[in-house]
Design brief:
single chain, alpha+beta, 43% helix, 11 strands, 4-stranded antiparallel beta sheet, Mlu1-box Binding Protein, DNA-binding Domain, 7-stranded mixed beta sheet
C-alpha cells in the first residue's frame, strides 16, 4: 500500500482558484496538472502517488494522462520558473488532463483524498465560470476587427455614390438645353436607394436596417471638415468604427458616461493601434444627457447639429430617426459646458 507523507511533514494544501491557476499548464492544446503538484495536493510523495496510478493504469487512457516529452519538459522549465519538476528524477513527469483528474478521484481513497477531491471539483467550476463570463471579450474583439474590415467596403460604396452624383450633375449641366434630360441615371438610383432614404435634414431607419444606418452615419461624419463632437452616453467599438469614415486630420471628441456594458480599455486600445493617425479623445458627458447629438465643424460657418434617436453603436437595430437642427446657436452654451469636462476613464 502506498505510503503518504509523515504526519509531521504533511501540510494540507488549500485548493484555491489562484493556487490551481498557477499550476495549470497548456500542453498539447489542453490544460494539464503535473503529477508532482497533484501528489502535493493529495499528501503523497510523488513516487507513491505514481504507484497508485500505475496500480490502476487501465483507468488512465492517453487523453487522461501522458508522460511529457523532453521538449515539453524543457518548455516548462524555461517558461515557468516555479514549475514543480525535479531535476533528480530519471523519468519525465506525468501530467493529468481534467478527465484524468476526475478518474484519479476514483483511485485515491481516504478522508484527505475525499476532501481534496471535492475542493478540486469546486475550484474547477469557479475557473470554468470565470472563463464563461469573460468569453464575450475576445468575441467582441473579433467583432471589432471584423467591423473595421467592413468599414473599408462601406467607404467605397459612399465614394461610388458620390462620384456617380458628380458625373450626373456634369451631364445635366452639359445638356441643360434639353428639357427632357434625366437628372439621375438608373445606376445612380440603384446606389442612391441601396443604402438609405435621406434628405439634407434627416434620416429614417426601420427596424433591422443596420447596414443602411451605418452608411448614413458614415455619410454624416464624412461631411465634417474640421471637427466632430459626439454626445452619447452609450458607446462601444462600433461607435469608434463609424468615426473612421471622417476625413483625415479631423479633431474628434466623444462625450459619454459610458453607461451599460460600455467601451472597455482593451477595445479602445485595439482601435487606437489600428487607427493611430486619428485625432480622437474621450471625455465624460457629466450625467446630464438623455438624447444623443452629433455636432460637425463647431463654431464655423459650416456647423451642423444632428439629433439622434438612438446610439450609433445600436444603429439600425430599432426604428429610429436622425434629424438635423438648423438652429445651431442654441448649442453654444452646451458645448462650452462640455469643454470643461474630465477625460473619460474606461472600464
Amino acid at each position: 500500500m502506498a505510503k503518504k507523507k509523515e504526519e509531521t511533514e504533511l501540510a494540507i494544501i488549500e485548493v484555491t482558484a489562484e493556487y490551481l491557476r498557477d499550476r495549470l499548464y497548456n500542453i498539447r492544446n489542453q490544460k494539464v496538472l503535473l503529477d508532482t503538484d497533484l501528489a502535493e495536493i493529495y499528501g503523497y510523495e510523488t513516487k507513491a502517488f505514481n504507484q497508485q496510478v500505475k496500480n490502476n493504469i487501465e483507468k488512465f487512457d492517453d487523453d487522461f494522462m501522458f508522460r511529457l516529452s523532453d521538449e515539453e519538459v524543457e518548455y516548462l522549465r524555461s517558461n515557468f520558473l516555479t514549475a514543480n519538476i525535479s531535476t533528480k528524477s530519471r523519468y519525465n513527469p506525468h501530467v493529468f488532463t481534467e478527465q484524468g483528474l476526475y478518474m484519479l478521484m476514483t483511485v485515491l481513497k481516504g478522508p484527505l483524498a475525499t476532501e481534496q477531491s471535492k475542493a478540486l471539483i469546486r475550484t474547477f467550476k469557479v475557473l470554468k465560470d470565470h472563463v464563461m463570463l469573460n468569453r464575450q471579450l475576445p468575441m467582441e474583439r473579433q467583432m471589432l476587427q471584423l467591423s473595421m474590415q467592413v468599414s473599408d467596403a462601406t467607404s467605397n460604396i459612399i465614394k461610388i455614390k458620390r462620384d456617380l452624383n458628380i458625373v450626373e450633375e456634369n451631364i445635366a449641366t452639359a445638356m441643360g438645353e434639353l428639357s427632357d434630360v434625366v437628372h439621375k441615371s438608373e445606376l445612380a438610383d440603384i446606389f442612391s436607394t441601396f443604402g438609405y432614404s435621406n434628405s439634407d435634414s434627416g434620416y429614417l431607419f426601420l427596424n433591422g436596417q443596420i447596414f443602411d444606418a451605418d452608411v448614413a452615419y458614415a455619410d454624416i461624419y464624412a461631411k465634417a471638415d474640421k471637427s466632430i463632437f459626439v454626445i452619447d452616453n452609450f458607446i462601444g467599438p462600433k461607435t469608434l468604427q463609424l468615426l473612421t469614415h471622417s476625413k483625415a486630420g479631423i479633431d474628434i471628441k466623444v462625450y459619454s458616461d459610458n453607461l451599460g456594458k460600455g467601451l472597455t480599455v482593451s477595445e479602445y486600445t485595439d482601435f487606437r493601434k489600428q487607427y493611430s493617425g486619428m485625432n480622437i479623445e474621450l471625455y465624460e458627458s457629466g450625467g446630464i444627457f438623455h438624447d444623443r447629438y452629433i455636432i460637425l465643424d463647431y463654431a464655423t460657418d459650416k456647423e451642423k447639429v444632428y439629433l439622434c434617436g438612438s446610439s450609433s453603436k445600436d444603429s439600425g437595430a430599432r426604428t429610429t430617426t436622425i434629424l438635423e437642427d438648423g438652429d445651431t446657436l442654441k448649442y453654444k452654451a452646451l458645448v462650452e459646458q462640455l469643454s470643461a469636462n474630465y477625460k473619460l476613464k474606461l472600464k
